[in-house]
């Protein structure tokens, strides 16, 4: 597999608390791994994606930050001798709250990610994290993550769903030694 990404961006700091950006991007993903759909061999694959993103970041207060990126993309997919095109949107939106002993965050996103099998996937995900420091040396964390992956440009689309819950605890035994455990 081979990937190239090019990104051209313009950023603006409007105030100490607010920034925005516009970016144009191009990415190409080539796979020499043969693809098989419905039992027929279709050869290597290539994906060329063009898109635009608009981003905003706001520090609402000392403790609360908001960020958001939305954009559109066009992907040209080639499997063997067949070429198709598809449109989609991309996003990364979130809110984070942080205090001395407590922090939490909620993020929603949609992105393009190459798979290990030589295909390009559109992934939609939602994540939620909570971190609480019980004592100076003892803290807990809880993470929840949902992801939906769909193959881009395939005439036989497939969708995969993942749901992950992970509570954890960490104890700082000494300055340079900690013990942690989690269940996923």
Quick take:
Helices cover 0% and strands 80% of the residues. With 184 residues, the protein is an all-beta fold.
Overview of the molecule:
This protein has strands at 2-13, 18-37, 40-59, 64-79, 82-98, 102-114, 120-133, 138-151, 159-174, 177-182. Strands 1-2-3-4-5-6-7-8-9-10 form a 10-stranded antiparallel β-sheet, with no helix packed on it. The chain contains no helices and 10 strands. The relative contact order is 0.13. β5 (82-98) and β6 form a beta hairpin. By secondary structure, it is mainly beta.
Which secondary structure elements does this structure contain, and how are they paired or packed?
Blueprint lengths: L1 E12 L4 E20 L2 E20 L4 E16 L2 E17 L3 E13 L5 E14 L4 E14 L7 E16 L2 E6 L2
Antiparallel strand pairs: 1-2, 2-3, 3-4, 4-5, 5-6, 6-7, 7-8, 8-9, 9-10
Largest sheet: 10 strands, antiparallel
Assembly context of the chains: single chain
Mean pLDDT: 87
How many distinct beta strands? Answer: 10
Number of helical regions = 0
Low-confidence stretches: none
Main traits of this protein?
184 residues, mainly beta, globular
